[in-house]
From TrEMBL:
<keyword id="KW-0539">Nucleus</keyword>
<dbReference type="InterPro" id="IPR015300">
    <property type="entry name" value="DNA-bd_pseudobarrel_sf"/>
</dbReference>
<dbReference type="InterPro" id="IPR044837">
    <property type="entry name" value="REM16-like"/>
</dbReference>
<protein>
    <recommendedName>
        <fullName>TF-B3 domain-containing protein</fullName>
    </recommendedName>
</protein>
<feature type="domain" description="TF-B3">
    <location>
        <begin position="44"/>
        <end position="135"/>
    </location>
</feature>
<keyword id="KW-0805">Transcription regulation</keyword>
<dbReference type="GO" id="GO:0005634">
    <property type="term" value="C:nucleus"/>
</dbReference>
<dbReference type="InterPro" id="IPR003340">
    <property type="entry name" value="B3_DNA-bd"/>
</dbReference>
<dbReference type="GO" id="GO:0003677">
    <property type="term" value="F:DNA binding"/>
</dbReference>
<keyword id="KW-0238">DNA-binding</keyword>
<dbReference type="Pfam" id="PF02362">
    <property type="entry name" value="B3"/>
</dbReference>
<keyword id="KW-0804">Transcription</keyword>
Length: 163
């Protein structure tokens, strides 16, 4: 049995006619994925820009997240990838983001523009980082597609478009 997904029912602010302009399939998959994360672990997503993955290698976090969940001073932050490998980075309060060590994480994971990362705070100053690639499907991507497929089938909705 073949199921084809229809994501046109997922709306964003300012959109009309139940259609979305999907500029990044990774962004859409990340938005769906983060809805599956437990609420006790705060999280946010970040779409990779050229300055995040080449050149400057500085990654800013959402200011509201920093104010609510991170220390009010510079501190080391650990990033844990999907294989459980840990990377030490430096969080700079003045930049609301990562500097030292971020370059190593980015290069080690071959991050490129438009990849989307979901940062999930699992301990004080420790993030689990989920990577949703723009140009290929990861295990998370496949799980998100399957999960959505099951939900749609369970709800008896007509599934007529593929992303």
């Amino acid at each position: 049995m073949l199921f084809i997904l229809d994501f046109t029912s997922i709306g964003r602010k300012g959109q009309t006619n139940n259609s979305i302009d999907i500029s990044s399939s990774a962004q859409l998959r990340a938005e769906i994925f983060q809805t599956t994360l437990p609420s006790e672990f705060p999280h946010f997503l970040k779409c990779m820009l050229p300055s995040h993955v080449t050149g400057g290698f500085c990654l800013s976090f959402p200011k509201r997240f920093c104010v609510s969940h991170l220390p009010k001073h510079d501190v080391n932050v650990v990033l844990v990838d999907e294989d459980g490998d840990e990377f030490s980075t430096k969080y700079l309060i003045g930049k609301n983001g990562l500097s030292g060590g971020w370059r190593g994480f980015s290069i080690a994971h071959n991050l490129v523009e438009n990849d989307v990362l979901v940062f999930q705070l699992i301990e004080t100053c420790k993030f689990k980082v989920h990577i949703l690639r723009e140009n290929c499907l990861s295990q998370i991507d496949v799980a998100v597609v399957l999960m959505d497929l099951i939900v749609e089938a369970h709800n008896g909705m007509i599934i007529n478009n593929i992303f």
